[in-house]
Amino acid sequence: MRAPRETLSLIGHAEAERLAGEALSGDRVPQAWLLTGPPGVGKATFAYRMARFLLTGAGSDAGPSLFGDAAPATGLGVDPDHPAVRQIAAGSHPDLLVIERAMDEKKDKLKAAISVDQVREIGQFLHLTASQGGWRIVIVDTADEMNTNAANALLKVLEEPPKRSMLLLVSNTPGRLLPTIRSRCRLLRFSPLADAEVRAVAAEVLDAGETLDPIAVLLADGAPGRALALAEPETRAVLTDLLALLKQGARLDPLALHAFADKLGKAGADALYRSFLDLFDAWLMRIIRHTARTGSPPNDLPGEADAAQAAIAAAGSLDRLIEVWEKNGQLFRQTDGLNLDRKQAVLSALLPLTLRP
Questions:
Q1: Is the pLDDT of residue 241 over 50?
Q2: 117-153 pLDDT per residue, tens
Q3: Distance CA 124, CA 139 (A)
Q4: How far apart are CA 215 and CA 44, in angstroms?
Q5: How many Å separate Cα 233 from the centre of its chain?
Q6: What is the mean pLDDT of the chain?
Q7: What pLDDT does 183 receive?
Q8: In the beta sheet, which residues pair with residue 137?
Q9: In this protein, which residues make up the domain named AAA+ ATPase (predicted)?
Q10: Which residues are CB-contacts of 144 (< 8 A; sequence separation ≥ 6)?
């Protein structure tokens, strides 16, 4: 499966590309962008698309507009055979810096946050001369994962970015960012895709012979990244186990619940834990929306209706289930921010959905 840095095509998000093209061809090119939208909707892919567009030579003119006196480009597509495209795909382009959570080698999992030392690299990087005389670009994926010191360090960079530099901040929850960071960025919103577009994205990303499970599309809620994660057998197994646990309600076996939480909280399970967070959040919101709209829970997955009914009964009402969903979001953000025990967080999130009031 191809990573965002390797994905050249853009399916959906035509309006975002149009707005970006207009801004890049204006008299004053924005040097900081905030790309917002649901997880897995394609924000990181778009960030690399913008970086690729600039680093393949667009905007080499000396004027404030990328295109000088010529007509602006109608899209951000580039020649796939350009050397910069291969360098970006390999993570070796000298004028592109990508900031992500680093790996904690001792604990064999990603660190809880992007650190201030990582963000300080941005200022040093942007003040270097571009190797090919063009742009120097930084992608922060995701900016939501910066700790407080890192966010303040980024703010200093945004206050006076060097000429011909650009920062692309990917954000799932922009409300978690400092207002002063948001105010210094050009906002670009990304909406969920249609199911047909989700399938088309998957066809571009999956290896030959692989197909996307229709259930994955159903649960993706317009986010191709989520659909692709659900296509992974290990992630689908987590969903199956989750529904099997929840449908037991008050009869839930405590040993089974602890075994489930152990699997997600153990060292080396970072990717699976992240998939669970996204999946659990999406599934709870799915049953809330479906039940509010139709008066009955969804029933597209084996055991889904029973699990949904048990969760609503445990919460006490649909309104109380919404409160549980909101509290779980806060719980998992706090767990990440303070590097708390993940197993305990999973248990704390599931218990209100398995005990009758």
A1: yes
A2: 999 999 999 999 988 778 999 999 999 999 999 999 9
A3: 15
A4: 24
A5: 20
A6: 89
A7: 97
A8: 96, 166
A9: 29-193
A10: 171, 172, 173, 174, 176, 177
Query: Domain 4-189 is classified in which CATH homologous superfamily?
Result: P-loop containing nucleotide triphosphate hydrolases (3.40.50.300)
Q: Domain residues of the chain, as ranges? A: 4-189, 232-353
Mean pLDDT of 149-161: 95
Nearest to 34 by CA among 165, 144, 163, 145: 144
Distance CA 100, CA 167 (A): 14
Model pTM? 0.84
Q: Is 117 exposed, middle or buried (0-12, 13-18, 19+ CB in 10 A)?
A: exposed
